[in-house]
Amino acid sequence: xxxxxxxxxxxxxxxxxxxxxxxxxxxxxxxxxxxxxxxxxxxxxxxxxxxxxxxxxxxxxxxxxxxxxxxxxxxxxxxxxxxxxxxxxxxxxxxxxxxxxxxxxxxxxxxxxxxxxxxxxxxxxxxxxxxxxxxxxxxxxxxxxxxxxxxxxxxxxxxxxxxxxxxxxxxxxxxxxxxxxxxxxxxxxxxxxxxxxxxxxxxxxxxxxxxxxxxxxxxxxxxxxxxxxxxxxxxxxxxxxxxxxxxxxxxxxxxxxxxxxxxxxxxxxxxxxxxxxxxxxxxxxxxxxxxxxxxxxxxxxxxxxxxx
Length: 308
Hints:
Layout: H1 3-25, E1 33-36, H2 39-49, E2 54-57, H3 72-79, E3 83-86, H4 96-104, E4 108-110, E5 119-123, E6 126-132, H5 140-157, H6 162-187, E7 196-198, H7 205-211, E8 214-216, H8 233-246, E9 250-254, H9 260-269, E10 272-277, H10 292-307
């Protein structure tokens, strides 16, 4: 082999190796793909993978994962995925994300694995029948578990990129610790007897547990019909009676839930609407709630302003 041919072969090998690395490291359009079920887990995934992977989310901001119905395009997105990520615990009604991943033969990270779960009644009137509350991300300490689970799943596919993934995760985990401390300081400005959080459905149990709130919701933990859903006259009356009994200053609507019911209950109880909270979905791009840190910050400021 002459010298110029040898140089050409060596150059071709280098280009080929670079192409293989780029397909994992995200230096071209062939980046690996993470397909996420909800906006929150998609945000957590982006904090871990940066630009090394392409992150896609099946739910749009403002959509309700309990009621979501998958589309043929969702199945195609999952078929193209390198890794799938879900919240789990039936937040995705009837486990639609798990079913999509299984049908496509794709690995799936369930972000709530390893979390100390809260329990909620599975059915109205049956207090002995309980299921796990899926809204675990409303505790920043739980959000850290989500991030670690995603980190573990990404590293299993691309161990060579572990240093970068771990560094990004470490930075974000420090931000979550700061968020937790800030929320505590803000909530401590609300007198204990005023820390009563009434919203459209029971999405805030973990938040209330962490920060000393009592919670109530007229429609149970789910906004669909799959588990613990729906409003009964007895539950509606109980919500109104509780608002009056505890002298609640304000109740709240949610960005991903029809506000009609909670507005009617506010009118019946003679209490104001304290504002809108981000719940099962983050905000639109360009809004203050377009990230997890932003949605949590805005929720806390809304609560403090209404209840203090």
